[in-house]
Specification:
Blueprint (H helix, E strand, L loop, with lengths): L1 E4 L3 E2 L6 E2 L3 E4 L3 H14 L3 E3 L15 E3 L7 E5 L4 E5 L4 H10 L2 E2 L11 H6 L16 E7 L5 E5 L4 H7 L8 E8 L1 E2 L2 E10 H6 L1 H7 L2 E6 L5 E10 L8 H25 L4 H8 L6 E5 L1 H5 L7 E9 L3 H14 L8 E6 L14 E9 L5 H13 L3 E2 L9 H7 L3 H11 L8 H7 L2
Parallel strand pairs: 4-6, 5-6
Antiparallel strand pairs: 1-4, 2-3, 7-8, 8-12, 9-13, 10-11, 10-12, 14-16, 14-17, 15-16, 15-19, 18-20, 18-21, 19-20
Helix pairs in contact: 10-11, 12-14
């Protein structure tokens, strides 16, 4: 097991830093258990980090920081059970590539794949889907090291009460060392991307949702323009984007030109509405067919800070219209589009879709741009509608709020009391959102 003395850890967006007493890179569950036991002897807390794609301090610690670099790899592909077991630090992009080589796929995924499997699932990372839910909802088994250094395995049949909570565990119940996901034979998705007006998308939202397996859209503030994306299973044949046209859409426009536009908007905020009108018309309609991860995910090289709230699906159009009215009547200048996605209800205690069909509204600001006024105003709208914030994205909610927002919140905190009574895995974020 490699280790290092204290250094500063930073997340992807650069808005969170931490200075742990020591950093370690265990290569096995046994080494993770040894790290936890030694931390207990030294009276230190323990946090595992992924790739730092959370915007909250969920993984920050002044104790022992576990890095995922060596806890990677595919343990087993079980074609009988149609499941894959992976080490917790395995990046999603590596998992997707291995599954593709094996002719397999996850059912659904988010729009980036830089995160580790444990980091993504612990915070409730999700894509969009009419029937298919978050990445964590595809977990069928977990292995985690608990506060006393024990190795606990759980599934719907083994330690089911832990399984019910630990799929989205916030790092509060233990250090996840391996995850088993349900997989299916690889399939093709046809993506249809199309500009659409805000009024049409919101007016036809129920129909667009019902007619497509995966529907999402982006609204560009200061405009009445949206870009929509509809992904549906296809009999094929595969017809991926052309190399040149794909580069123009996904790299030049979505990353390169957008980076320049955001930098200009940060320097001269008055230009943002005009830039937004141009940006919202830059991406053209296109249709292509490819394997799932090449359709679901996209490169995201422009750095930002994000807040996302989950609301009851039937409320999403009203909530989004309130957000638009807020931007229109304020002096806010917002260069990033607002993203809207959906998920079906699931049975995970702290899932943002726990017990209710859900829609997500995500707001972003370019890195280095003041975001507090915008996020605070949007958060006020979201909480008035009983919104649940994404655990890995900026929010100001606390345990009192969550106890009312999540019917099974008490179930989770009681399990935490049992598994980690001394709060070996605590940090400031968990004290705020779970109480102490």
């Amino acid at each position: 097991m490699s280790g290092a003395s204290s250094s500063t850890w930073r997340n992807w967006a650069g808005n969170v830093t931490a200075r742990p007493v020591r950093e370690v890179s265990p290569a096995s569950a046994a080494e993770v258990a040894a790290v936890v036991r030694r931390a207990a002897e030294d009276g230190l807390t323990v946090k595992a980090v992924g790739t730092g794609h959370s915007f909250t301090t969920a993984a920050a610690t002044d104790g022992v920081l576990i890095r995922p670099d060596l806890l990677t790899g595919i343990r087993e592909i079980d074609r009988t059970a149609m499941a894959v077991t992976v080490e917790a630090g395995t990046p999603l992009k590596r998992l997707n590539a291995v599954l593709a080589r094996e002719g397999l796929s996850l059912t659904n995924m988010g729009d980036i794949m830089e995160q580790t499997v444990a980091g993504a699932t612990a915070t409730g990372t999700h894509g969009t889907g009419r029937e298919s839910a978050s990445i964590a909802a595809q977990i069928t088994g977990l292995e985690l090291v608990t506060a006393d250094g024990s190795l606990l395995t759980c599934s719907a049949k083994e330690n089911p009460e832990v399984f019910a909570a630990a799929r989205i565990g916030l790092g509060a119940l233990g250090v996840v060392t391996a995850i088993t996901f349900a997989v299916e034979p690889e399939f093709l998705l046809t993506a249809r991307e199309e500009p659409m007006t805000f009024d049409r998308v919101t007016g036809d939202f129920d129909e667009l949702f019902a007619e497509n397996e995966h529907f999402e859209f982006y609204w560009f503030p200061h405009t009445g323009n949206c870009n929509t994306k509809r992904n549906n299973r296809s009999a094929g044949p595969a017809a991926p984007p052309g190399r040149v046209s794909g580069w123009v859409e996904d790299e030049l426009l979505s990353n390169g030109v957008f980076q320049v536009a955001c930098s200009l908007g940060r320097a001269v905020p008055a230009t943002i509405p005009a830039i937004a009108r141009i940006s919202s018309r830059a991406l053209s309609a296109r249709t292509y067919t490819d394997i799932p991860y090449k359709v679901f995910t996209s490169p995201r090289r422009v750095r930002f800070v994000e807040m996302e709230y989950a609301v009851a699906r039937e409320a999403v159009v009203d909530v989004l219209r309130e957000v638009r009215a807020l931007v229109d009547r304020s002096g806010l200048r917002v260069s990033f589009p607002v993203e809207v996605r959906t998920a079906p209800a699931d049975d995970i205690a702290l899932s943002t879709a726990s017990g209710r069909d859900t829609a997500y509204i995500a707001v972003h600001m370019y890195k280095g741009t003041p975001y507090q006024a915008y996020f605070t105003a949007v958060e006020r709208i979201m909480t008035a509608h009983g919104g649940r914030p994404h655990w890995g994205k900026v929010h100001t909610r606390d345990a009192e709020y969550f106890a009312a927002a999540y019917p099974r919140f008490g179930e989770f905190t009681a399990l935490r009391d049992r598994l980690d009574p001394e709060r070996r895995f605590a940090n400031a974020y968990l004290r705020r959102v779970l109480g102490d």
